[in-house]
Amino acid sequence: MRDGKDPFKGRRFTAGVILWAVRWYLQFPISYRDPERMLADRGVPVDHTTLYRWIQAYAPELDKRLRPYIRMSSGSWRVDETCIRVKGRWMYLYRAVHARGQTIDFLLSARRDAAAARRFFRKALKQAHTVNPRTITVDKNAAYPSATKTMKRAGELWRFAKLRQRKYLNTIVEQDHRRIKRLVRPGLGFKSFHSARQTIAGYEIMVMVRKGQVRAVPANGMPIQATFIASLFGVAA
Length: 237
Hints:
Shape: globular
CATH topology of the largest domain: Nucleotidyltransferase, domain 5
Distance between the termini: 20 Å
Number of helices: 8
CATH architecture of the largest domain: 2-Layer Sandwich
Number of domains: 2
Largest sheet: 5 strands, mixed
Order of helices and strands: HHHEEEHEHEHHH
Helix content: 40-55%
CATH class of the largest domain: Alpha Beta
């Protein structure tokens, strides 16, 4: 979707219907057939395959448009990865939250190694709402010391950043994985890496909204959320 173009051009349904379905699917543990039934109850016949296409198109777009409004995070990172099933195989979802539980960033990877850890850290550090971490708390995964040492030598990571391999301090991010797992579960796994990455981007950004991380949008303010997201796409709520 290029800037200046109507993101809903050519769609059979209105922007309001599409954004409603996308927001609800990405926030609640439901399958594609659930919003299909909900819309049918309101006299809007939408097939679940159409809903799938909407998520693939608008979940990453929602992530991109909300990013500039995320509140600044702190320099205390808690990093961990959890497993997500994609086309019958386990993939790794790298995630970081700060000490108060706010999401810092995420990355889906086919591998769980030092290269994947570096990709995740680089992605997180590029975000406008993040700062170079003072502390990075991880588990005993040997990939993290290797990744941080390499990045410090390259000047990509603050050289005084402290890496702490203490699993008991990482319970906050391990518990936070449950939010995403709960959203993923009704879909019974993803059919491709691309669709998983697109959908998870939507899950994660809406988790940030629900945590109150988006400026001017209260954590539980659904009407304000709807109006704000509609404005990002240039449509009336």
